[in-house]
Design brief:
Helix content: 25-40%
CATH topology of the largest domain: Rossmann fold
Radius of gyration: 20 Å
Order of helices and strands: HHEHEEHEHEHEHEEHEE
Structural class: alpha/beta
Largest sheet: 6 strands, mixed
Oligomer: single chain
Strand order of the largest sheet: 5-4-6-7-8-10
CATH architecture of the largest domain: 3-Layer(aba) Sandwich
Number of domains: 2
Number of strands: 10
CATH class of the largest domain: Alpha Beta
Length: about 260
């Protein structure tokens, strides 16, 4: 919405191309942009392959990256403070008395996944809580991976934790379902915090405590940077900009102070 509103206000048409974390599909989208002779592109990439972005920049295309680091590319970037968000989510659980906190990671090579994980580790370190690699679960930013990661963990280790930080709301929702299917109550037995503040988070049972991303603001800032780059007369001399959007802890009902029966 943020991208569309800025584009419309400035007389530009918005073309959207979606993919599912597949490099080949991203390349198809780039070729589509070239064929349509677009003035610029805001890319939300997941593949970790910078070569095709570099080729676009070298060909003179105006590019803004959304929610990832530039990795040396001379492009503007807009991202949320993923490290701070990961820290805040973990700190919130620690302040509620939890120390055995599972972390469900997202797609490994994506910057946001790495940064949220680093925030989790730093919060533990600052509270002098020993890092436990067994508490790190693999996920894929979808409900199914959140469900399966918790199901497998419970089957292997049992209930040796009191809280979960899932690095996005979809995985948190999957984790809640897995716990409920095992007869484990959220938040009475296990507290959980997500990341995103997706539209469904207030409506699940229990309503999800989460880290809010200001998605519309991200889109608006990205569109403004792109329009500025399009209109710039000295693109080669223009210094690339990076804008980091703050995050916010949204407290709902899925995370509560640890009870005596949870102190494992």
């Amino acid at each position: 919405n943020g991208i569309e509103s800025v584009a419309t206000e400035n007389g530009y048409n918005l073309i959207i191309s979606l993919n599912h974390h597949i490099t080949k599909e991203e390349l198809k989208a780039v070729n589509f942009f070239k064929a349509k002779k677009v003035d610029g592109a805001i890319l939300v990439t997941t593949s970790g392959d910078d070569d095709y972005i570099r080729s676009l920049v070298e060909e003179g295309y105006n590019i803004v990256l959304l929610d990832r680091d530039p990795h040396g590319l001379k492009v503007d970037t807009v991202k949320v403070d993923n490290f701070r968000g990961g820290y805040m989510a973990t700190e919130h659980l620690l302040n509620l008395g939890h120390s055995n906190i599972l972390f469900i990671k997202g797609i490994p090579h994506i910057d946001s996944s790495k940064e949220r994980f680093e925030g989790y580790k730093k919060a533990l370190k600052d509270k002098e809580i020993k890092f436990n690699n067994d508490f790190i679960l693999s996920g894929n930013f979808n409900v199914g991976s959140g469900y399966s990661s918790i199901e497998k963990y419970l089957d292997k280790y049992g209930l040796n934790f009191s809280a979960i930080f899932a690095s996005d709301d979809q995985m948190a929702i999957g984790a809640i379902k897995a716990l409920k299917d095992k007869g484990i109550s959220v938040p009475d037995d296990i507290s959980i915090v997500g990341f995103d503040d997706s539209y469904i988070s207030p409506y699940i049972i229990p309503p999800l405590t989460t880290i809010k991303q200001r998605r519309e603001e991200m889109g608006r800032v990205a569109a403004e940077l792109l329009l500025d780059r399009i209109s710039s007369r000295n693109k080669e001399k223009r210094t690339p900009r990076q804008v980091i959007i703050p995050v916010e802890l949204i407290e709902r009902k899925s995370a509560i102070p640890i009870s005596s029966k949870q102190r494992r």
